[in-house]
Amino acid sequence: MSEPLPLSAITAPHLPKGRSLFEPHRLFLMAVFAVIVFCAIWFLRWDWIPRYQDRLIAGIGQSLLMLATTTAIGFLFAVPLGLVQVTGPWPLAWLAKGFCTIIRGTPLLLQLWLLYYGLGSVFAQFPEIRSSFLWPYLRQAWPYGFTALMISFAAYEGEVMRGAFAGVPKGELEAGRAFGMGRFTLFRRIWLPRAINRALPTLTGETVLQLKSTPLVATITVIDVYAVISKVRQDTYLTYEPLLLLALIYLCLTGILIAAFRLLENRVPTRGA
Amino acid sequence: MTDTAEALHVSNLHKRFGALEVLKGVSLTAKQGDVIAIIGGSGSGKSTFLRCINLLELPSAGEITIHGETITMKSDGHGGLMPSNRKQVQRIRTQLGMVFQSFNLWQHMTVLQNVIEVPVHVLGMPRDKAVEIGEALLRRVGLYEKRDVYPSFMSGGQQQRAAIARALAIQPLVMLFDEPTSALDPELVGEVLTVIGDLAKEKRTMILVTHEMKFARDVSSHVVFLHNGVIEEQGPPAQLFGDPKSERLKKFISSIH
């Protein structure tokens, strides 16, 4: 941590110093916060947590699984989506552009429902599909949730990668060519890693957004952590306690995600300019 | 043309950008150990000429031969040329060590990674051998201590010296320098020129496009003065700088001093 600190100090010179945490007004705010937390713990009901503990953990697991698979596979699609827009022949570039525009221009919830209620019921009408080996999967909800989230991530990140590919300095690519790199080597060794490097800060934010899009799959009966909390609310008639816990869970997950991405970003230090 | 003492031979090179003809038939021969300095005003076509040698710019006409091997070209259908064998171009490029005006180091790699990148991933050299060679080269250009530093944390002079080490790492037949000091602050020019001067002393074949007249005079074995896309005058540095024949070269030299 000793290296990045002076750099962040350059970009944000008003950043508080460590000792200023103990200034009087900060101590006061901390005390207020402690009182709120204490009241929340003391006066609200939390006795239901042990009963739902296992389901909550399974729900968190489902949410994280959705996040990890949709971002990983979505990103694999985003790379070619971005690349053809920068360098591809015009029909491909046009197709990719159209895909990104349509997906980014419509609500994710709408896409999810179109897939699940639309495509799902169409599939059910064909005996060939019903009798195929895929049916045990296609009759479940998660493939539709996964597909919708994955496509959405691919479209957004396709745009991000387009900008990242276009932004890699021409001279560095030229240097690769000048030293005899073929197209594939140049892409694999210079263009792609350099583009990902540039896109990482944006990808951090996009992944956090994706995490907070995963609760949508609860609307098509996938049991993620949001669905578990909804169940708690139905069973116990409690409103605030489950929602507060849910907020805390998402906050923690976001914090972990950002820390992990920060590690990745710091692997290649760059100067602010 | 199969004379192996001839490291580089360019004959009758033309380059057009649309209606503008930048090179109007430039020929040049570099024997092994020659240090050829190309000088000329801006817009004279000297950088374009250098970039045509390793086909970063595709010439419109002409022939390029490196160590007896001529790059096969075919018509691109628009009045220009394109290489007919991409593999041959890639192979020949690995024999030409290019140093750019703006360094063009790969910013996502450390200095050492930059230096071993081409040997390992293009030439297929074992990694530990490439590291050994790379570290020796970095020691030569005075950057051994900086081997694990990323380029953006170094000065322009250090970056350019690293770029020279990267070009040397492929053990090139010919080094190509494209105005290597033009993007540097004045106080950093010296350290880069020292490195290039050392290379010249050890009889490395080099083509050097430069604005540093004194340096060109000191290190080169042959000077070419390019003006408006043609070679206006050429010869040994003492003759060219001491007794210029053409009016334009006289004017050019007096404008520099």
Q: Which ranges of chain A are low-confidence, i.e. pLDDT below 50, for 5 or more consecutive residues?
A: 1-10
In terms of structural class, how would the helical and strand content of chain B be classed? alpha/beta
Order of helices and strands of chain A: HHHHHHHHHHHH
**CATH class category label of chain A:** Mainly Alpha
| Helix and strand sequence of chain B | EEEHEEEEHEHHHEHEHEEHH
Beta-strand content of chain B: 25-35%
The proportion of residues in beta strands of chain A is under 5%
Total count of domains of chain A: 1
Q: CATH superfamily of one domain in chain B, please?
A: P-loop containing nucleotide triphosphate hydrolases
CATH architecture of chain A: Orthogonal Bundle
Overall CATH class of one domain in chain B: Alpha Beta
How is the main sheet of chain A built? none
Q: In CATH terms, what is the fold-level topology of chain A?
A: MetI-like fold
Instruction: Report the structural category of chain A.
Output: mainly alpha
Low-pLDDT stretches of chain B are none
Q: Work out the helix count of chain A.
A: 12
Oligomer: heterodimer
What is the CATH superfamily of chain A?
MetI-like
Q: What is the CA-atom radius of gyration of chain B, in angstroms? A: 18 Å
